[in-house]
Amino acid sequence: MSHPLLSVILATPGGYHTVRKTVSHLRSQTACGSLELILVGPPQALQDLEVEELTGFARYQVVRIEKFQSIGQANAAGIRQAAASIVALAEDHCFPDPHWAENLIAAHQGSWAAVGPGV
Questions:
Q1: CB crowding 76-103: b at 16 or more within 10 Å, else e
Q2: Residues contacting residue 76 through CB under 8 Å, at least 6 positions apart
Q3: What does each of the 119 residues of the chain score in pLDDT, given as a tens digit?
Q4: Other Cβ atoms within 10 Å of 68 Cβ, number
Q5: 3-class DSSP state for residue 8?
Q6: pTM of whole model > 0.90?
Q7: Where exactly are the structural domains of the chain?
């Protein structure tokens, strides 16, 4: 397991099936081997997790929160567990281009105070 360069937080109050398409797009990233995927949700929400769909990432974590009150609260729980120094927040309706993570990681090598993805 290599040290990730980018941690991607993906929170869901529903089951894994609600974020499967987003995970597929993250797994298709050219920098997939540099990504840590952190799935956050209530214990019952991630019971349908398909671990074989998480291969290729530098690492992944499942963060279970007892009371899912908001996406913001879940994102914060995921950020606290992130191993990478760069953190991105993903959502179930986001399907990033295959070079998204690679470009975001590269942008952080510059001298800018903040960076964001291209739109």
A1: ebbeeebbbebbbbbebebebeeebbbb
A2: none
A3: 579 999 999 999 998 999 999 999 999 999 999 999 999 999 888 888 889 999 999 999 999 999 999 999 999 999 999 999 999 999 999 999 999 999 999 999 989 888 887 76
A4: 20
A5: strand
A6: yes
A7: 6-107
Q: 6-107: what CATH class?
A: alpha beta
Question: Which own/partner pairs from 15-19 qualify as long-range (CB within 8 Å, at least 24 positions apart)?
Answer: 15/45, 15/46, 15/47, 15/48, 16/45, 16/46, 16/48, 16/49, 16/50, 17/48, 18/92, 19/92
**Cα 111 from Cα 27, distance rounded (Å):** 28
How many CA atoms does the CB half-sphere of 13 hold within 13 Å?
A: 7
Query: What three-state secondary structure class fits 36?
Result: strand
